[in-house]
From TrEMBL:
Residues 68-216 form the Peptidase S54 rhomboid domain. This is Membrane associated serine protease, rhomboid family. GO terms for biological process: proteolysis. InterPro entries: Peptidase_S54_rhomboid_dom (IPR022764), Rhomboid-like_sf (IPR035952), Rhomboid_protease_S54 (IPR050925). It is found in: Membrane. Keywords: Hydrolase, Membrane, Protease, Transmembrane, Transmembrane helix. It is a multi-pass membrane protein. GO terms for molecular function: peptidase activity. The lineage of its organism: Bacteria, Pseudomonadati, Pseudomonadota, Gammaproteobacteria, Methylococcales. It comes from Candidatus Methylocalor cossyra.
Length: 231
């Protein structure tokens, strides 16, 4: 099942969400333009390599710039495949606009980056020996989902049932609750999370979601306004 849209109306154009999507697409197109070897080197340099920060001596010996923490942010704009990019940007398109509506452009961008940084931190903590670059907007996106879980729990998410012309509506609290259960199961199942691009940083997802849950109220700029109707 794939989420198709939600039913929460917008009050303002989601400029920041659109901007994040455009930035992610442009960075991905640039990476695809690179030869395969250069593309891996690009992702290695700008993606999140946990051992780069847990073993600084190894990082220097491996040729990483000393004291460079920019990958904690740049990794949020890298993706390994078209499917990876489309799935993340589609989820951001559905859920990000409503969170931006409640936070404003600057507050939303700060919130997005904060959740991504928390996701990075938990991923490093869970995989301190990994020398493989982890890339993707999923950690920051998970923060958006965590905020949505609390701000719009009873909004309806329209779900497309794959391979069937069937669309059903489910409460956001049920859809996102199931998402969290899947992440938690995968994170605690004992499967490796950072051995290749094909694997997923499950702990990073959970870190981002938790950050979104606990910090979203810091960024609300219209707390006194009546929330939009949820049909």
């Amino acid at each position: 099942m794939i989420p198709y849209r939600d039913t929460v109306p917008l009050r303002h154009p989601p400029w920041a969400t659109w901007g994040l999507i455009v930035a992610n697409v442009l960075v991905f197109l640039y990476s695809q333009w690179l030869p395969p070897g250069s593309r891996y080197a690009f992702n290695l340099l700008h993606g999140l390599v946990p051992a780069r920060y847990t073993h600084p001596e190894w990082a220097v010996a491996a040729g990483f710039p000393s004291g460079d923490y920019s990958p904690l942010v740049t990794t949020m704009f890298l993706h390994g495949s078209w499917l990876h990019l489309v799935m993340n940007m589609w989820m951001l398109w559905i859920f990000g606009d409503n969170i931006e509506d409640r936070m404003g452009v600057l507050g939303y961008l700060a919130f997005y980056l904060l959740c991504g940084l928390v996701a990075d931190g938990l991923h490093i903590y869970a995989n301190p020996e990994s020398t493989v670059p982890t890339i993707g907007a999923s950690g920051a996106l998970a923060g958006v989902l965590g905020a949505y879980f609390f701000l719009f729990p009873y909004a309806r998410i329209v779900i497309w049932v794959l391979f069937l012309p069937l669309f059903v509506q489910v409460p956001a609290i049920a859809f996102l609750g199931l998402w969290v259960i899947i992440q938690l199961y995968q994170a605690t199942s004992g499967l490796p999370s950072a051995d290749s691009y094909a694997n997923v940083a499950w702990w990073g997802h959970l870190g981002g979601f938790i950050a979104g849950m606990f910090t979203h109220r810091w960024f609300l700029w219209r707390t006194s306004a009546t929330p939009p109707a949820q049909s």
